[in-house]
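Lecture 7, part 2: worked example. A protein chain together with zinc ion.
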Amino acid sequence: MTNDGAPLRLFNSLTREIEEFRPIHEGEARVYSCGPTVYNYQHIGNMRAYIFADTLGRVLSWKGYDLTHIINITDVGHLTSDADAGPDKMEKAASESGKSAWDIAEYYTGVFKGDIARLNIRPPAKWTVATAHVEAMIDFAKTIADKHCYELDSGLYFDTSTVPEYGRLARAVTEEGEGRIDTVEGKRHQSDFAIWRKTPEGETRQMEWDSPWGKGAPGWHLECSVMSKQYLGEQFDIHTGGIDHREIHHPNEIAQNQAHSCSAHTGANIWMHNNFLVDRRGKMSKSAGEFLTLQTLVDKGVLPLAYRLMCLQAHYRSELEFSWENLLAALTRLKRMVMAAQQLRDRVEAPTTDIDHPRLQQLLTAFDEAVSDDLNTPKALTVLDDVLGQKKIDPAQRLATVALIDAVLGLELVTLTRQDIRVRPSTARVDEALIEHQLDLRDEAKGNKNFPAADAIRNELASNGVEVMDGDPLRWDWIIEAN
Ligand code: AMP
Ligand code: ZN
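Predicted complex, written out as structure tokens:
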């Protein structure tokens, strides 16, 4: 049953308009998200895409829909450029590292899933792995080959003029988009793309399969058409990905879907895209060389959930600028929220789930309106601040309200403690036991009114990256530099 709050309205990249969400199957929401290419670590920009997809999933659950979410793992087929040329990212990583493509995929998939857990992103109903679906991809390609494809020496290509309104999702042919596709000799149109790539004569690939078009590997776009159809149906509710996918990958998925269903239906009713995480150099990307992983943040002493909060502070369709200052500001905000929630927990003797206080009901309505308005998480966070700040209202009801809201925001406010947020930076030179011991000595010195000795201990700790916090039950915290 869906709740009777505000109608859920989402921005559909296909129409470039906000539309009311109407599920295909009553009471259900079926969502497919393009997942990582597991040839390298995911950077925190990539992780923004999954925080967004998770927020969407949590809002759908909040609205009462029974959610089926699929995320794929791309372990074959994604080329080093968005063009249909150059080596496969997996094969390239394998030859550079001397490891097998399969081992590389396994390693980076494991790291990715670990990051998903650290960001409190709910795992999907199923992780679908591309290499486990190659037979289904070949079958799919067979059904569209005659009417929509042509064969060249390098593979089987999709003729984009055979489907209605190719590229409607991308709209303009931009410098970033179709126009950039390198030409492959013999292609009928610049936007045509490979759905099967033959292994060149005399070469062997680590990942290759037999097909009616020769030994080779599937094109990247094929996997998403095949796996979304297999697990969610030929028509499902929502497809998500980063905004770069609006230009090539998703228009190509749509073309394949239309060819397969022999209709103008794009596959998903709503296509949603998160905007980029950028830094001073522009879009964070792996090809730009240096990039930040979640582990970089942890090494610095930042709890991953602070990054989640940083993402939620911006609307998913806005660019989000990464800077250490922004991240540390989010960390401070998270600490405040956690302290407020912890104080509430300390005061509640008999937990409740009944929320009948009119102000809290009003705030829950405001929260529902915010998240129903194309996932307006910045506004939803201000409602959460408001709930935490209602000092005069019964703590048990406030805590219950926080729990409801946090089920959508995923900041773990009901369980996290200030202690959990104190993450040891990898550069720390002192250990916790020593810090506690020095603080005991400092208390003793203060008790003896030996203030110079107390100050000396404080200064020494500061020079070791530790801030002494008088009057705080936590007593101390790590100093994190904003650079
Ligand atoms: P990839 O592993 O390259 O296939 O990318 C995984 C996901 O991250 C895709 O949905 C991309 O669109 C998305 N993505 C890539 N770079 C960024 C970025 N800087 N900010 C946000 N999302 C991104
Ligand atoms: Zn995809």
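Residues 324-347 form the longest helix (24 residues). The first strand starts at residue 9 and ends at 12. Keep this in mind for problem set question 3.
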